[in-house]
Every structure is written in C-alpha cells, then in structure tokens.
Amino acid sequence: RNSFLHADTLAARLKQDQSQAGENELAYLNLNLGNNYLKSADYLKAISLYISAALLFEKLNNKTFAANTYLNISNVYELLNQPQKSAFYTQMAATAAEGTGNERLLCAVQLATVADLLNTHEFKKAEALLLKTEPMIKRLNSSYTNQNYFYYKGKINRALNRKQEAFQSFHQSLQYARENEDVFQVVDVMTALFQTYLTDNDLPSAKKYIDSVLAFAEANQLNMSRFRAFEGLATWYEKKKDTIQSKRFSQRATMLNDSLLSIDKKNQLVNLETQFQVQAKENEIKVLRTEQKLAKMDLRQKSIGNYILSGGLVFLLLLSVLSYRTYR
C-alpha cells in the first residue's frame, strides 16, 4: 500500500514535467503501476494506467512499448471475459508492432491473436495460426514463449476434444511456468488442468489442482484465481452429488465476481474507453499536423531552392549574352 502511495506521488510530480524525458519516465511508471494493480486484481486501475502509458508511448513514438502495453490491456479484457475489447487492443498492438523488427514482440502479438480466436470459439483458425507461429517460437527458444505456446495448444486440443493431447500440452506448459518461477503462469495452467479434469470426470486429479490454485490464490491475493477455484469447487461438489457444498461455493464465486467488477466499475471502464478514443484521435491529429507542417516547410524550401536556381540561370544567361556582345 505504501509503495502505491509513493508511486502515485511520483506520478503526480512527473505529470508537471512536460519535457520528453519526464513523459518517458511517466510512461514507464504507469506501465509498471498497471502491472502491480493487475496483480492485485484492480482491473479498472490497471486499465487506466495502461491506457495512460500507451498514449504516452505513442506520443514518444516508442512503438515497441506501446505494443507491449496494448497487449497488457488485451490481457485484462480477456480476464474480464470481454473478447471484442481484447481483440481490439490486440489489433492495436499489431499495428504498433509493425515495422519494429522485434520478433519476440511480433510472436507475442500472434499468440495474443490465437487467444482472441479461442475466446470467440474459432478453434480451427486458432490452430492454423499457432502452427504458423511455430518456426518463430523455435527460433526464439524462450521459456516464456514456449509456456504460452503449449498453454494455447492445450486449449485448442481441449476444444477439439483431443483430451490426451490437451493434458500433454498443459503439463509441458506447467513445466515451463515452474521453470520461469511465474506464479501467474503456474496458476493459469493449473486452472486449465482442473477444468479439463472436471470435464473428463477425473475428480481426484481435478481436486488436486483446484486445491493448489486456491492455495496460490490465497497466498498471493489473486482474486480472479480464487474466483475460478470457487467455481471449480462448485462443479466438483456438484459432480460428487453434494448440492449443499456446491451451492455454497457457487455463491462465494458469485459474490467475489461481483466485487471484482461492479456496475459502477463497468461504467467507469466505458468512460475510460471514451477518453482513450478521444485522446488517441487528438494525438493522431497532432501527428498529422506536424507532418503537414514539415511537408509545407519542405515544399517552401524546394520553392526557394527553385527560385534561387532559376535566378542563377537567368544571371548566367545574361552574363553569357553580355560576354558574347563584348566578344563581338
């Protein structure tokens, strides 16, 4: 809590600094703060800070970090089960990433697009795109990229009812998540595993991963993971024919979900989106005006150059005539 207050104080100070260096520092601060608020499941604050960071990165023409920030926003909307907005920000990331030559970033954009296709149940398209991404993933040879690759491969296999392949992919993903020592990756894969085991009616295996997810969630204050664990327990007890416990965990899941994103917060999200669209358009207009101004200056300089050149040619012509007459 104190670190958040310190960061907010620093942000307020940087907002008064209109220099490029000050705006650059504020952009990175907003990005890091957004990551911290995302970890604590304050999605409204996370999106607000990410949007501020993205607009500053765009203004500073830092396309690499603008694209990374858009991917973070896309991820938040995926967590909030809003696939259209998630896909919108993935596309924003793709546009920003074009021309950067950053293969790791371009790969991340493609994997985010796979996630968007999964969210809209376009499983065959998702599989085709993931297959297309494989050569890039092999070249990068990154444990983080590999973790995401096998995670989405598992989801595709599960959706296409290839259960054994799904389990194999998820376990490979979990191995990379543990290697990365990334709590969020570990919890996400374990969630996918217990959901798949529940579908397969393997209740002992499902319970093992539900309990693990809940333990991680409680230890790290991961409210969205806690919500999913409660949902999993509700389903698990339902399959065990224990309606009382199933109803109890279903109610706990509903209460937690309501607290994560109330109607008031949803309205605030809409307002944030509107502000982003307006600010983005204003930035675009400023860029166009700058380009037009530069084009006019260039045209003016060319006109002056042509005028000087024309004047010089006239002078040389007169000089040659005078020289000719003198010679005659």
Q: Indicate the percent of residues in helices.
A: over 70%
Number of DSSP-assigned strands? 0
Euclidean distance between termini CA atoms? 96 Å
Order of helices and strands: HHHHHHHHHHHHHH
Structural class: mainly alpha
Choose one word for the global shape.
globular
Rounded mean pLDDT is: 84
Uncertain spans: 313-328
What fraction of the residues are assigned to beta strands by DSSP? under 5%
- Please report the number of helical segments: 14
Biggest sheet features: none
Q: What Rg do the Cα atoms give?
A: 28 Å
In short:
The protein has 328 residues and is mainly alpha-helical.
Give a structural overview.
With 328 residues, the chain is mostly helical. 88% of the residues lie in helices and 0% in strands. The protein contains 14 helices and no strands. The chain has helices at residues 2-15, 20-39, 43-59, 63-79, 83-97, 103-119, 123-140, 143-159, 163-180, 183-199, 203-220, 223-239, 243-260, 263-327. The termini are far apart. Residues 313-328 have low confidence and may be disordered.
